[in-house]
Amino acid sequence: MLTTLILWMAIxxxxxxxxxxxxxxxxxxxxxxxxxxxxxxxxRPSGPIELNDVFxxxxxxxxxxxxxxxxxxxxxxxxxxxxxxxxxxxxxxxAYTIVHDGYIHGRxxxxxxxxxxxxxxxxxxxxxxxxxxxxxxxxxxxxxxxLAARRRGVLPPG
Length: 158
Hints:
The structure is a single chain. The protein is globular and about 55 Å long. The protein starts with a helix and ends in a 7-residue tail after the last helix. 70% of the residues lie in helices and 0% in strands. The chain has helices spanning 2-34, 36-39, 54-68, 70-73, 77-104, 117-132, 142-151. By secondary structure, it is mainly alpha-helical. The protein contains seven helices and no strands. The mean pLDDT is 94. The chain has one domain.
């Protein structure tokens, strides 16, 4: 059991980190592209529920499916690996929901996160995304993405 838990975490943690790059890519290419019809609601005041909320509703079953399949194939190495992938995607999704929807957009009671300078830097970077409608597209790299976008001339000097 401990070996399985170690395997899951060895897979889940890198997957959770890699999800930041996947989210950035999707945000840039899909949400601000052909899926703008859904994402637009997030860039305009729209109340407690946004059409944009369809994205986590569509992503969550994929991660859940990867974890649920373990019930049928418990002990198979591929099954344990897929469980770790699903767990990593879920960890990212939970963190994203708490930080982005909860703290940055005030949709959950987690304002205490503002006590941390890192969280304030993420809020400020995301504010630039909403102000300019372009980079930074990620969330957890915050100031790093802002500096990179400024070096490339995508964002004005700050």
